[in-house]
Protein: Transcriptional regulator
Amino acid sequence: MQLTKTEEDLMNHLWKLEKAFMKDLLDAYPEPKPATTTVATLLKRMTDKKFVGYTLYGKSREYYPLVKKKDYFSKHVNGLIKNFFNDSASQFASFFTKETDLTKEELEDLKKLIDNEIKNK
Structure:
C-alpha cells in the first residue's frame, strides 16, 4: 500500500515528532497551514492503511507511525528499481551517478560506501 503525496508530507512530520497530537501536527506545518479537518481526514485514511496508530486520552488521540521511514523509503526505492530499471540495481546506480549532479567528492564517498558493503558481504 502506498501513501499519496499529501499523506507522505503528513507522515514526514509524524516521523520527525515520533508521537503527536493533532495540534502538534498542525504546528509542524509551515504557513499556510492545512485545515484541521484536512489533517483529520488524512490521519483517518493513514490509520485505515495501517501506516498510523493512535492512543486515546479521553477525547484526544496521540498519533504515532506504525511504519518506519527507512522501511517505507526502502520499499519505494526497490519498486523504482524494479519498475524503471528492469530490476537491475546496476542500471539504477549507473543512471543515478550519471544523471545527478554529484561532485567528485560525493562520488568518492559513494565508492567508499560500496567498498565497505562489499567487505561486509
